[in-house]
Design brief:
The protein has 117 residues and is an all-beta fold. Helix content is 0%, strand content 51%. It is built from no helices and eleven strands. The strands form two sheets. Strands 2, 4, 5, 6, 9, 10 and 11 form a seven-stranded mixed β-sheet that branches. The chain has a four-stranded antiparallel β-sheet with strand order 1-3-8-7, with no helix packed on it.
Length: 117
């Protein structure tokens, strides 16, 4: 029973930056539970992979391929952000917001990120 609304995707040149946002219809981070929000991505012909996540307690996890370039953050209610710097063509994918709320996983519709010159 959580809706996720993603924004911020688009077309950028290699080396550029984008900031993704995802707002949940529930207060994911304002309740005492093991909740989390994050981002996965899926490129054509590839498996969906974890990009980054952040928990209620503030712990973060990143894919090795984005460490040092991407930063995940959140507010204290329902929104998660992904700051993507130094973008590479291999970052091109559909990025999906995800939320774990009361032990159930929810997914956004996805937002396209294309890195190309």
């Amino acid at each position: 029973q959580v809706q996720l609304v993603e924004s911020g995707g688009g077309l950028v040149q290699p080396g550029g930056s984008l900031r993704l946002s995802c707002a949940a219809s529930r207060s994911i981070f304002s309740i005492a539970a093991n909740n989390a929000m994050g981002w996965y991505r899926q490129a054509p012909g590839k498996q969906r992979e974890l990009v980054a996540l952040i928990t209620t307690g503030g712990a973060t996890n990143y894919a090795d391929s984005v460490k040092g370039r991407f930063t995940i953050s959140r507010d204290n209610k329902n929104t998660v952000y992904l700051q993507m710097n130094s973008l590479k063509p291999e970052d091109t994918a559909v990025y999906y917001c995800t939320a774990r709320w009361d032990g159930t996983d929810y997914w956004g519709q996805g937002t396209q990120v294309t890195v190309s010159s």
